[in-house]
């Protein structure tokens, strides 16, 4: 697959977005947060992500180095994406692929990332 357009969001539907991303390049991180959530992530430049609804429903959580803005729905608690800065200072969005419509996470082969040691 190449870059494709997907729609996604939280469980209750308050947060909804569209993103153009390549889900062939996903990761599964073992940091203290990702491991507990079981997220599978793909990354997209901020300009490839459009939050269509739910800005007012988002709560933010930062931990460790406090550089990633983990955003979750204040109603249902689902973190469907996060915002941060990638290599070279590019604004990025980390998208929880499990929250994308029409995507079967069991068909993916995420790269294991050792976030616990970072």
UniProtKB/TrEMBL annotation:
Belongs to the Gfa family. This is CENP-V/GFA domain-containing protein. The keyword Metal-binding applies. It comes from Labrys wisconsinensis. Keywords: Metal-binding, Zinc. It comes from the Bacteria. Residues 6-118 form the CENP-V/GFA domain. The keyword tRNA processing does not apply.
């Amino acid at each position: 697959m190449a870059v494709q357009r997907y729609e996604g969001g939280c469980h209750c539907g308050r947060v909804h977005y569209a993103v153009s991303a390549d889900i062939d390049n996903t990761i599964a991180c073992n940091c203290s947060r990702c491991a507990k959530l079981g997220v599978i992530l793909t990354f997209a430049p901020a300009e490839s992500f459009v939050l269509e609804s739910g800005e007012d429903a988002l709560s933010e959580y930062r931990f460790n180095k406090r550089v990633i803005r983990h955003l979750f729905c204040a109603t249902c608690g689902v973190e469907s994406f996060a915002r941060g800065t990638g290599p070279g200072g590019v604004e990025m969005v980390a998208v929880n692929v499990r929250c994308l419509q029409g995507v079967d996470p069991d068909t993916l082969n995420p790269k294991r990332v050792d976030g616990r040691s970072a």
